[in-house]
Specification:
The chain folds into three domains: 133 residues, Immunoglobulin-like; 88 residues, Immunoglobulin-like, CATH 2.60.40.10; 185 residues, Glucose Permease (Domain IIA) (Distorted Sandwich). The protein is mainly beta and 450 residues long. The protein is elongated. Strand 15 and strand 16 form a beta hairpin. The longest helix is centred in the middle third of the chain and has 25 residues. Helices cover 15% and strands 41% of the residues. The protein is built from four helices and 30 strands.
Length: 450
């Protein structure tokens, strides 16, 4: 009987004096401040008796808004096991688009977490405050250059100035992004971007100069003065078993990312479609790592004494035994002279790819800086190595028929951040003078092109 009384006393003491432990609270935001939309992640934990309540508020001057408020059922003071909410993970959203009373300055996301009470004891809540700057205005954007004339499949340049809060700027064209760079010799906020009009888009309104800060405020504006539409031409390609039997085995042997389908036509279609797409993704990645400097100072060289076998941006329909089996875009010039003709670098730059490269066979990519690159494909041999610096006119390889080539030739194109663009502009001294020299002026490493 005495033992039962003692146990009851212990039990009553525990119930009276055993509150839950002080909760641990961590609050973090996905952005360094509050703009249009910021997500705040809150992690609250009390693994002993569990949480009793969790409340999240946004506080700024007269603004107090409850973002989350939930009560939980913790363990009873005398219980040491059972169901309880020991950990709660919550994401709340704050921003200009959600809280209309927000003002620029600072705001506080206040997190309060309560532990389970005892009969005679109750802990004060754990309070964690996350202080965030509130910025609601987009960075300033001022266009400094003029006469922005661009053709479908071509390139251009724009010079502009951004506000001090800008952390990302450039030209956005649909899914393509052409980043801005500090203008050599310009002021701290002066920028420029080389950009392109995709070969398969005739909408000039899709070309926008954009700036954004680190909390998501952004501003974009159209700026193209004149756009020249150049619809893609159509071309039919008739496939033969002999051609596919010639090109497919080598490409499969050199391209482990494509598996053997066990059928000649299926293999060709996988190469012409899937591998072509993968090669395009690699070219885009190479463009992202382009050097932020002008490596060239002269007009670009075409392949000498070459005949144009196929032009830029032909939309090809592939037929086998009279049936349409595929459609793809041919994004370059096919140039031919004699077998194994020496291929000069179109301009000075750094070799960023020199290897067997999928549909292009043995290929070289030269980086000319600021996202501008040149591609030399279907080569029979390579005469440069990756990482090597080449001069304008230096031999990079010899023409050939590797990859998806039906005969000895050079597939040549220019790329801007991975997007194929017409090489004809870069071969044209007058175009370079009008489009680049007049806009960038002293920012270029040369006075005139020759």
């Amino acid at each position: 009987m005495v033992l039962l009384v003692a146990l009851a006393a212990v039990w009553l003491g525990a119930a009276a004096l055993r509150p839950g432990k002080a909760p641990a609270v961590v609050a973090t935001s996905d952005l360094p401040g509050i703009g249009p939309l910021t997500r705040v992640s809150v992690l609250a934990s009390e693994p002993d008796r569990g949480l009793a309540r969790l409340k999240i508020e946004l506080v700024q001057q007269d603004l107090e808004e409850v973002l989350f408020d939930q009560e939980y059922e913790p363990l009873a003071p005398w219980s040491f096991w059972g169901e309880r909410t020991g950990v709660q993970d919550v994401v709340v959203e704050v921003g200009r688009d959600l809280q209309k009373g927000l003002k620029e300055g600072e705001a506080v996301v206040r997190v309060s977490a309560w532990s389970a009470p005892a009969w005679l004891r109750r802990r004060a809540p754990t309070v964690e405050e996350l202080v965030l700057p509130v910025r609601l205005k987009a960075p300033l954007l001022q266009i400094l250059s003029s006469q922005h004339y661009i053709a479908q499949g071509g390139a251009e340049a724009v010079v502009y100035r951004v506000g001090a809060t800008s952390v990302r700027d450039g030209v956005e064209v649909g899914d393509w992004w052409f980043p801005g760079y500090p203008l050599p010799g310009g002021g701290d906020q002066d920028r420029f971007a080389l950009f392109a009009a995709p070969y398969d888009s005739s909408d000039p309104t899709a070309i926008r100069l954009v700036t954004a800060d680190d909390v998501g405020n952004s501003f974009g504006r159209s700026f193209v003065d004149q756009f020249f539409s150049r619809p893609m031409r159509s071309d039919d390609v008739r496939l033969s078993e002999a051609f596919m039997a010639k090109v497919v085995p080598e490409i499969l042997a050199q391209s482990p990312e494509i598996s053997d389908q066990g059928d000649l036509l299926a293999n060709y279609l996988a190469i012409n479609g899937d591998l072509r797409r993968m090669n395009g993704e690699t070219l885009a990645e190479l463009g992202e790592d382009s050097d932020a400097a002008f490596a060239w100072n002269s007009v670009f060289l075409p392949m000498p004494n070459a005949q144009v076998m196929s032009a830029f941006a032909d939309h090809r329909t592939y037929r086998f035994n009279g049936e349409v089996v595929d459609q793809q875009d041919h994004l370059g010039f096919d140039l031919a002279s004699v077998k194994r003709a020496s291929i000069p670098a179109a301009n000075a730059g750094r070799v960023v790819l020199a290897r067997y490269f999928g549909i292009y066979g043995y290929s070289v990519v030269v980086d000319h800086g600021y996202g501008l690159q040149s591609l030399y494909a279907h080569l029979s041999e390579l005469r440069v190595a990756e990482g090597e610096t080449v001069e304008r006119g230096q031999a990079v390889g010899a023409s050939g028929e590797t990859g998806l080539a039906g005969g000895d030739h050079l597939h040549f194109t220019m790329l801007l951040h991975g997007l194929a663009i017409s090489p004809k502009e870069w071969w044209d001294e007058h175009w370079l003078q009008d489009r680049l020299v007049r806009k960038l002026g002293d920012s270029l490493p040369f006075e005139s092109l020759h």
